[in-house]
Design brief:
With about 1150 residues, the protein is of the alpha+beta class. The protein contains 38 helices and 43 strands. The strands form eight sheets. Strands 34-35-37-38-39-40-41-42 form an eight-stranded mixed β-barrel, surrounded by four helices. This is EAL domain-containing protein.
């Protein structure tokens, strides 16, 4: 039955918009071809006018297909997928996959066919067996490199297929991501990235191992791709692994295949990252360590300077008490706090280091005067006078400071330090908590005693504050106001009883409140003091004084506002009660905002007002701002609208307050005509009446307190008058405290949170966090910027960086931990957003700073242990920092001139001597080469082995001198042999990793070698396998330069630790030395024998000599011979021996 024209037209339009070949067939008794779109004709290379009119999907298997479709129709099924083989118009064989949908309509059936060309896929499958067979010739190579792999498998990169299962410890890794063999490699990569790879490594893993990138690299001549990352293993534990893909063409179609192997590098990586953590900083305080401090200061002093400089040596008094009584962990916290305070005092304008234990050292460059240094020393004494308590016992520390000036007291750090240490000793002798300058007389400088009173914060308050003993009533402390009103001088109140000083009594007061006091809250009462002739609101409380409970009293003078005569207004009781309520409301809350809001609510209720408020005035600009506000329920708030009020625009109000007058307006309509601007100001906040009083600071109008629309007590100004002073004083006191707290937890320069805040943050848990990201940042080259361009420029960079960080993470916690180190904690941000924001910030930082910023960042929604995340971020940051150091010209290694001088003397005295250990060729039964090893013959100590002095040289970054010394020694030996007519044999010498990385390394070799007329190919440089952690492009460059000079390269310690197989393809080496650790287990370890066999065979195929190192037994020799290794080095034949003995035995 023909298709309904309307329906056919509709279906045709749909087919034309599909992106695949499509045909429509109808069936009643026979199949009838109705329509096909252009892609269908193109698939078979036909045109519409070619008479192409098959009534079924075009196929060579027509009858088989027809029977299958007929069966489907009879069963009334709705879908069929079939694969068929056909020839197109050009007689090319093609494979198609057809998806048929059946629509049943009365007696007719509509069949919609979607057809896909799968010819290429079929070709791939057909060639797989051929490719696999051809690939088998690489078997030995694959066995060798995959012998210690977690996983190895093959991929067809051109066709994007994984062609075998991925098995780790019997676990099929494909099934972990719901895939099977012959799946898409890129799909596996995507799924594995999402499910198993660490969040910080996802982008790197996916991009570096993606098939598109593999193809491009192969086109560029790169045959091996390597990637390190963190991933889950078969036991669902995450650790560091590496994936290496060897690329090669396989099969008749020349398809690009990859042999993939994954190795466990977790232990290696952790070791590497731990090494990267080492830096110039003292590990505890993050200040400069002694070596770094000396290097920087000496570098500065070696240059002629126009201005003087100063050296301060600080010793913490009584610090031993902290460690002994509060523990070393707490002591470490105190040292960090001290370091933080010193950093803040100098704000990056001094070089600060930790000299040792509890000693700190500061070098101030370009001082304007000695008074400036003394002023800084006084601040240090003040800031480092600290108190700590435990179990009601209080411990005090202070500081003593020795000071010297350059060039007056010395021109080198060594000279200055000796004099500074002497000055410090004098400061200690003077009674501690002192500073003393070395070359100043007692007449010129009076040593400063810096005693910080425990009440320093409240000493300047206008209330009387005193502390007294509960047992003896003796005064322990009396603030300035108390001393003024009682006439007692500072320091003279010791042994005076509180009732003697404040009440004029000879015995304790009968109304003493001691029995009513506790440690948790104030006891508030009102008292008329006849001795002082004053009226007070009194607040009493117990506090701890050196671990003992004592009485603290605060007395607020209300004499000017209270009239204690019998003539009282009717509302006086209500006023007094309200005042007491206000005073209590001011003292109890923790925050100033809460305290003031509580008081305003009490005042508002007293007047039954709609609104109570405080307006504070900027004394410089005469601009007012409504800082606090209380509004009755259901009444609107106006505080946000009442900011930056120009008092010059409302002169009626301003002039009243300037003349110390209160302002009471019972009806604002009354001032409408005469003062229209003031009237508009009041009406804008719906104030129809008001009561306001001004307050002052140092005699100057500074703000006002008021209520709008009072409905009772409108003419009673007594309450506002009485409470005015207390409110203002509480604001001042709390803001001073808040400023102190702010400074304690914020960085002064950047305004960011500081290390104290960070430490506090770590102590809290936030259960509302569902994901957490951590960004650690370190400014590259900040010290050099400060040194070369001044700290002002460095500070400017810090503020720019802080501003950029705030712009990308405005609502997150950003901490400045030290001079150049920042950390950002990002909560509840999706991973993609976190990465995008971090990358954008990194780019912005790079473009806004001279050297950029090294970042390390991590993110998690599973493991949100903040310490783990910080550690991970720090490791990544240090890796990037190392990359910066490798690329930057500003990185300087530590050095010690005295130690270097001693080392060079040893070279000159020939105290470093060459020992040779022979390498035997078993087949030739003779010595074919030797390794040069070093020993130290130090007077009075005999022969010293390398493990005793090499670590010291490495620590002091002096191995380069020994490396080049030994290189020249073997050049001398070879030249002497040549002159004596002896047969030359190759001699190898060890080169350290740091020496290899020197930019001028090969030029240094060339300069030394050019002094000797010997063939270069008799010199072999032994490079330890640990260079595997260096970027492979660097390794390739270094090895090429060495080979270009004609020297041989030996890969030492192979299999000892890193087992980095990528070195085999990266490093152009001539000899591979199997490490002793493998030889030691060879006899009883079948697996080791198998691995070693493959390595030896691989060396033969790539024409590399294989040397077994550390051979000690005949059984080892026999096995090595069986395995094919013929060059032996070890104690079995000879230990390292002196040069003369080697020549006598092996080289006549």
């Amino acid at each position: 039955m023909p298709v309904n024209p309307y329906n056919l037209d509709m279906i045709t339009k749909i087919c034309n918009h599909l992106n695949t070949a499509c045909a429509i067939i109808t069936y009643r008794h026979n199949f009838h071809f109705e329509y096909a779109n252009d892609l269908y004709y193109q698939l078979f290379k036909y045109k519409r006018n070619d008479g192409f009119n098959y009534s079924l999907p075009y196929s060579n298997d027509y009858q088989k297909v027809k029977n299958t479709i007929t069966s489907i129709i009879q069963k009334k099924e709705e879908f069929l997928e079939i694969e068929t083989q056909s020839f197109n118009k050009d007689n090319d064989l093609i494979w198609t996959r057809s998806r048929l949908s059946f629509i049943y309509n009365n007696q007719s059936v509509y069949i919609i066919c979607l057809v896909e060309n799968i010819t290429e896929n079929k070709k791939v499958l057909k060639n797989l067996e051929i490719s696999h067979q051809k690939y088998l010739h690489e078997g030995q190579f694959k066995a060798a490199i995959a012998s210690d792999a977690l996983v190895s498998y093959e991929i067809n990169i051109d066709d994007d297929l994984i062609i075998e299962d991925i098995i780790e410890n019997t676990v099929n890794m494909l099934k972990l991501v719901d895939l099977n063999t012959n799946c898409s490699y890129s799909e596996f990569l995507l799924r594995w990235t999402k499910k198993c790879v660490h969040p910080d490594d996802k982008n790197k893993f996916y991009q570096e191992l993606h098939p598109h990138r593999l193809k491009k690299l192969f086109e560029q001549g790169i045959t091996e791709v390597y990637c390190e990352y963190r991933s889950l293993n078969a036991t669902q534990k995450q650790g560091w692994v590496s994936t290496t893909i060897h690329l090669l063409h396989v099969g008749e179609t020349n398809k690009l295949f990859g042999f993939v192997y994954v190795k466990d590098i977790n232990d290696k990586k952790i070791h590497e990252l731990e090494l990267l953590r080492q830096s110039q900083s003292d590990p505890l305080t993050k200040l400069y360590n002694r070596t770094a401090f000396g290097q920087i200061v000496n570098e500065y002093l070696n240059k002629k300077r126009e201005y003087s400089s100063a050296l301060l040596l600080i010793d913490i008094d009584n610090f031993k008490n902290i460690n002994d009584n509060l523990g070393h962990s707490f002591g470490d916290t105190v040292l960090c706090e001290i370091a933080h305070k010193l950093t803040n005092i100098f704000n990056n304008k001094a070089i600060i280091g930790r000299y040792g234990g509890d000693e700190f050292i500061i070098f101030i460059k370009d001082i304007p005067s000695k008074k400036y240094v003394y002023h800084k020393a006084s601040i240090i004494l003040e800031e480092l006078h600290l108190y700590y308590s435990s179990n009601y016992q209080e411990y005090t520390i202070s500081s003593s400071i020795g000071i010297t000036f350059s060039p007056d007291d010395g021109k080198t750090l060594h000279e200055l330090f000796e004099q500074t240490d002497s000055a410090l000793y004098r400061a200690k002798k003077l009674g501690k908590s002192q500073y003393f300058a070395f070359n100043d007389s007692y007449q010129d400088i009076t040593p400063v005693t810096n005693y910080i009173s425990k009440g320093w914060l409240i000493d300047e308050l206008d209330e009387i504050v005193y502390v007294s003993s509960l047992d003896t009533y003796e005064l322990l402390y009396l603030n300035r106001k108390g001393r003024e009103i009682t006439g007692i001088e500072a320091g003279e109140y010791n042994h005076i009883k509180c009732y003697e000083a404040l009440q004029g009594r000879t015995s304790p007061c009968p109304f003493c409140t001691n029995a009513k006091l506790n440690l948790n809250e104030f006891y508030i009462w009102e008292f008329s003091n006849q001795h002082l002739n004053k009226d007070y609101i009194v607040k009493d409380k117990l506090v701890l004084w050196e671990g003992t409970p004592v009485r603290m009293e605060i007395a607020v003078d209300v004499s000017d506002t209270h009239n204690f005569n019998l003539q009282r207004v009717p509302t006086e009781f209500a006023i007094e009660k309200t005042i007491l309520d206000c005073l209590q409301a001011l003292t109890i809350p923790d925050t100033l905002e809460e305290a003031i809001n509580n008081v305003l609510e009490i005042i508002g209720n007293f007047y039954q007002a709609t609104r109570a408020y405080i307006v504070e005035i900027d004394l410089n600009t005469k601009i007012g701002s409504n800082t606090y506000e209380w509004c009755r329920e259901n009444y609107p708030h106006y505080r946000d609208q009442l900011q930056r009020i120009d008092l010059n625009e409302i002169p009626y109000i301003y002039e009243a307050f300037e003349h110390h007058n209160n302002l009471i307006i019972n009806d604002c309509e009354a001032i409408k005509k005469e003062h229209p601007r003031e009237y508009a100001h009041f009406i804008s906040r719906e104030a129809h009446s008001l009561v306001t009083i001004p307050y002052e600071e140092t005699g100057i109008f500074a703000g006002y307190i008021g209520v709008d629309n009072p409905s009772i007590n409108q003419n009673t100004i007594a309450l506002l008058d009485s409470i005015n002073f207390s409110i203002v004083n509480e604001i001042k006191k709390r803001r001073l405290y808040e400023k102190t707290q702010y400074n304690l937890y914020h960085d002064n320069l950047s305004g960011l949170l500081n290390r104290n805040s960070f430490t506090q943050f770590l102590s809290y848990e936030n259960s509302a966090v569902y994901s957490q990201g951590v960004i650690l940042a370190d400014i590259n080259g900040l010290k050099e910027i400060n040194r070369d361009f001044g700290h002002y420029h460095g500070d400017k960079i810090i503020t720019i960086i802080s501003s950029i960080m705030n712009s990308y993470f405005p609502s997150e916690k950003i901490f400045r931990l030290s001079g150049d180190e920042f950390i950002i904690i990002v909560n509840n941000l999706e991973y993609k957003q976190f990465i995008e924001a971090t990358k954008q910030m990194e780019d912005t930082l790079l473009g806004s700073t001279p050297n950029g910023v090294s970042l390390g960042y991590t993110w998690s929604e599973d493991n949100m242990d903040i310490n783990d995340l910080i550690h991970q971020a720090e490791e990544l940051m240090m890796i990037n920092k190392q990359i910066y150091y490798e690329r930057a010209d500003t990185y300087k290694k530590h050095y010690s001139p005295k130690k270097l001088e001693n080392l060079l003397k040893c070279f000159k005295a020939k105290q470093f001597v060459v020992y040779l250990q022979p390498k035997f060729d078993i087949d030739q039964n003779k010595v074919v080469s030797a390794e040069a090893l070093v020993r130290l013959e130090y007077p009075g100590h005999g022969l010293i082995m390398p493990n005793k002095f090499i670590p010291t040289l490495e620590k002091e970054r002096m191995t380069r001198y020994l490396d080049f010394y030994m290189f020249e020694q073997i050049c001398e030996i070879l030249e002497r042999w040549q002159k004596e007519g002896k047969e030359l044999i190759p001699i190898s010498v060890n080169i350290s990793r740091l020496t290899l990385l020197e930019s001028d390394f090969t030029n240094s070799l060339k300069r030394i070698k050019n002094k000797y007329n010997i063939p270069n190919n008799f010199i072999t440089l032994e490079i330890t396998e640990s260079i595997g952690n260096i970027d492979r492009s660097i390794i390739a460059t270094i090895s090429k330069r060495i080979k270009d000079l004609g020297f041989n390269i030996s890969l030492d310690d192979f299999g000892a630790k890193y087992a980095n197989m990528s070195l085999l393809s990266t490093l152009n080496f001539d000899e591979l030395k199997i490490d002793k650790s493998m030889i030691d287990t060879l006899v009883n370890n079948d697996k080791c024998q198998t691995i070693l066999h493959h390595i030896i065979e691989m060396c033969k195929k790539i024409n590399v000599a294989c040397v077994a190192e550390g051979v000690e037994t005949e059984k080892q020799i026999e096995l090595l011979v069986c395995l094919g290794c013929n060059i032996i080095q070890g104690f079995y034949y000879s230990k390292p021996i002196p040069l003369q003995e080697f020549e006598d035995k092996y080289h006549q």
